[in-house]
Each structure stands twice: as structure tokens, then as C-alpha cells.
Amino acid sequence: MANDNGGPAPRGFLTAVGVLVTGAASGIGLAVAVRCLSEGATVAALDRDGPAVSRVVAGLPAGARDHAIAVQADVADPDQVGTAVATAGEELGRLTAVVNVAGIGGYTGDIGQTSPAEWARTLAVNLSGTFHVCRAALPFLRASGAGRIVNVSSQYGLVGGAGSPAYSAAKAGVIGLTRAMAVDHAAEGILVNCVCPGPIDTPMLRASAGHGEQAGREAARTAGRVLLGGPGRPEDVAGVIAFLLGPDAGFLTGAVLTCDGGWTAG
Description:
Blueprint: E1 18-22, H1 27-38, E2 42-47, H2 50-58, H3 62-65, E3 68-72, H4 78-92, E4 97-100, H5 116-144, E5 147-152, H6 165-185, E6 190-197, H7 203-208, H8 212-221, H9 234-245, E7 256-259
Parallel strand pairs: 1-2, 1-4, 2-3, 4-5, 5-6, 6-7
């Protein structure tokens, strides 16, 4: 992943990189998988919805399809994750990068309204899921001699949101986990960074709008926050992640980058 001539990263700068992308059946995860393939990587597309991610891979253009595999796992289940990551490493031949996109959203109300089950499931997927994937992938990254991990948090990992204490806590935890891993693994050449998207036009964002009064209250509270007009596109976030996986990000670890159209600027 080094850029030996010191110049700008060329197209195809992820050639010989094996990338595991979670949450790859739709939204940001799908955009990341497609962008990595376009840059020459081989990709293991992981999702809880096995049939959906298999259809995604089958629907890729022939040239990309030959460099992608679909794997199924619920990231909240460490046993499923271990099996899926081992399959990805074996099928790709090498695993040099991980992008943790898988997550769930939705409003659960304030802490009095958020049930213990909602709290547990949100943290299990959004925070523990990231931990499980990173932990299972670590031996493969070490075997490659270096590696990249990009964890996807949210603008709500940086600021509070109404009616979403579990989601905000989990996404803030992803930032803390990213920084802790950056400290632990820098000496091994494993760079760990985090991206915090703002409102992005994904199925998860559209589903969250269906949460009635709570969604409407938060939309009113945050109206006008996206300075660039938003919402953004999944491809906008995929571009930032591709940069973090590429040769021009070789001196970045423990970084937290927003891709939110200026949402957190004001």
C-alpha cells in the first residue's frame, strides 16, 4: 500500500490488497466494496443478509465479480464472525484491510424509554460487532506484515442526538476503540482510522425517517446543519475510506475524519 514515488495515488492503487467490508449488501458498505474493486482490490463482502450480499456480488460486472466473494455473518455473533473472516482470508489469499460498516440505527427514545434489549442489541452490532471483526481479522493483518482498518462511526459519535442514547453511545465507543487499536498496533504497521458520516442517503437513513414523532423532532432540531445541502451519497463516504486504505494515508492512524457536509462544523 506504499506509494514509492511520492506522487499522487494512481487509479488502481489498491491492487494486491484484500479487503473485508462489512454491511456490504447496501448503502455505504456496498459503495465501499464497489470503490475498492474499482481500485484493483479483491473484496470479501460480508453482510448479515446472506442472500442479499450474494445477489450484490452476482450482479457485479464480470471483471469485478471475479475479484469478489460474498460471506454471511451477524457481526454481533463472534463465532459467525470468526468463521466468515477465516473464509475471507482463505478465499482472497490474503487479508490486508478491514472496513467495518455494518450497523443498525433507529430511535429508541430517551434512556427511560430505551429498553435493555434495544440497548444491548444496538451496542452488540454497532460496537461489539466492530470489535469482533477486528479481533478475528488481526492475525491475518499481522501475517500480511501491515494492514489498514477503517471503522465507520457517525456524526452522532461526536455529538448527542435526540432519542438515540444507545446509538450515540455505540458510535462514540467506535471512536474510542479506533484510537485504542491505533495505539496498540502502530508498531506492527497496522493503521486504524475512523470515519464519521453525517446524513447519507442510505436505506438505514430512510428507515429512520419512519420513526414518527422522534424522527420529526430530531429533523427539526438539526434542520440546516448540512452546510453542503445534503444528504450525502454513499460514494462520498467510500471515497474517504478508499483514501484511508491507500498509499497517501500512510502517516495517518488514530484519525477521526468527518464526512458530513459540514454537519458538525456549526
